[in-house]
């Protein structure tokens, strides 16, 4: 049995279209040009606050508007849940891991409440016993604190972290946890430039990789 901890955005779900939709609604209200899907991808990874900061910088919005726009973004998150889609094979891979006796958890920089809504939408809420979001603690990834908090709330056992980005790789390294890189997410660097124990682009491969690399 292994403790399998997942990132969310860009790993289990493609949430960029929904987040982009929220952001563009805000920008339209501000009378500013919308962001592209590529921009949305590049802004995701460090939490909602960082997303808003990068969105502001891209559209020349003053720093003084950060908290107002962040509050608006967070208030509209729930409406974007239905626009997120699981990557192909995710539900089947999660079911296979649970059937194999592994224990699942979530460590994401998305705020905790929207993250739980995404799991509910996927129909896997009961499979994730521990959920730590970007606002659950005073620190967020790549600080290892959130991942350590997740593991600390679980029974002892070999562990692996599954993510899609440089942030996830740095988090796993800092926490001393094996890292499996999903290459189809929101990474900004070539696969070979991101430290990982194994990389995959097909979730059908995940159960075997967990068995081989969890430590």
Feature tags:
6-stranded parallel β-sheet; 8 strands; two-stranded antiparallel ribbon; DNA polymerase, domain 1; 9 helices; single chain; 215 residues; globular; 2 domains; Rossmann fold; alpha/beta
In CATH terms, the superfamily of the largest domain is HAD superfamily/HAD-like
What would the principal axes of the Cα set say about the shape? Answer: globular
The tally of strands reads: 8
Question: Which CATH-level-2 architecture of the largest domain?
Answer: 3-Layer(aba) Sandwich
Largest sheet: 6 strands, parallel
Oligomer: single chain
Question: What's the SSE blueprint?
Answer:
Elements: E1 3-6, E2 13-14, H1 16-29, H2 37-43, H3 48-59, H4 66-76, E3 85-86, H5 90-99, E4 103-107, H6 112-122, E5 128-132, H7 145-152, E6 159-163, H8 166-175, E7 178-182, E8 198-200, H9 206-213
Parallel strand pairs: 1-4, 1-6, 4-5, 6-7, 7-8
Antiparallel strand pairs: 2-3
Helix pairs in contact: 3-4
């Amino acid at each position: 049995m292994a403790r399998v901890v997942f990132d969310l955005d860009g790993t289990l779900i493609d949430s960029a279209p929904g987040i982009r939709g929220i952001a563009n609604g805000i920008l339209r209200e501000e009378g500013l040009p919308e962001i592209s899907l590529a921009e949305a991808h590049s802004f995701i990874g460090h939490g909602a606050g960082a997303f808003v900061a990068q969105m502001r910088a891209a559209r020349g919005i003053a720093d003084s508007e950060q908290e107002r726009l962040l509050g608006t973004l967070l208030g509209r998150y729930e409406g974007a849940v239905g626009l997120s889609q699981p990557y192909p094979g995710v539900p089947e891979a999660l079911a296979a891991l649970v059937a194999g006796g592994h224990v699942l958890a979530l460590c994401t920089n998305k705020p905790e409440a929207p993250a739980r809504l995404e799991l509910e939408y996927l129909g896997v809420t009961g499979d994730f016993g521990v959920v730590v979001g970007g606002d659950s603690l005073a620190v967020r990834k790549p600080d290892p604190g959130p991942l350590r908090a997740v593991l600390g709330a679980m029974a002892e056992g070999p562990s692996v972290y599954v993510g899609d980005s440089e942030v996830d790789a740095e988090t796993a390294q800092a926490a001393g946890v094996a890292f499996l890189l999903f290459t189809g997410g929101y990474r900004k660097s070539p696969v070979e430039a991101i430290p990982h124990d194994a990389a995959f682009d097909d979730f059908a491969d995940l159960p075997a990789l967990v068995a081989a690399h969890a430590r």
